[in-house]
Amino acid sequence: MTSRVGLYFSYTKPKVWSLLVFVGAIGAVIAVPYFTIYYSLLILLAVVSIMLGSMGAEATTNYIDKDIDAVMSRTMKRPLVTGKIKPRNGLIFGLVLMSASIALLLFFGKVYAALFMVLGLFDNVFVYSYLTKRRTPWNIILGGFSGGFPVVIGWYTITDKFSILPWFLFLLVVVWIPIHVWSLAYRYRDDYNRAHVPMMTSIHNDRISAICISSAAIILFAFSIIPVFFRVMPYTYMILASAIAIPMIFYSIVFVRHPDRKNSLKLFIYSSPYLAIIFVLVVIFRFL
Known about the structure:
Elements: H1 2-11, H2 14-29, H3 37-64, H4 66-69, H5 79-82, H6 87-107, H7 111-132, H8 139-143, H9 145-158, H10 164-187, H11 189-194, H12 200-203, H13 206-224, H14 226-229, H15 235-257, H16 261-287
């Protein structure tokens, strides 16, 4: 029984959804006017619903991508490919989790949060995995919005009041996703070509790939300081965000000048925690 639970848990790709839960929790925390048991329970509601939805989406996209996973060396050991989980069971598991996430929010009257949950799941499962992943190199741009929705789900689980802050964080995640996915696709280019998945980095040469990935990293930095100009973050935040971004910009320039997997990995490693650091800074300055 324990091994079966562990198998289905790994099937949901926890390394992927844990980041979505993190940004969703931040979205909830920054919406809290002050901390009480009531608001703590709402944060818990946001975390649980986002976790269920994200797990369900990953499980469902695993079902959609099972033929792709079977020919890629990075993914050929996933449970559906190896037969440890039957496709029908994997699909039902994913659909149940996604339905539960929406139902949970609606049960507690969080209509806006439930709406954004539906939009996020639709973008990830249908727009990205089913509709665009195999058809266009714009797949991760069109499907990247799903990664930002947990922030606004978290926010609107706490309050119905509008603020530009969660939407800024939403855009920050959307901009960060191409760097992460394209860097990974660049390293596993042969895999994507074998599976006939037209990722930008698998259909373009090293130079163009490096320019696209590095440009996204610089745009990420630009987006990270935008809230200062809307007066929702102080100048001290901009100074810290800029200082943290210096190595990322440096690695971006190096990658463009010398486009290879070694420099791509350096940019990937540094840009990965950058998003989390910015989110933590936003929380700190939000309550200062």
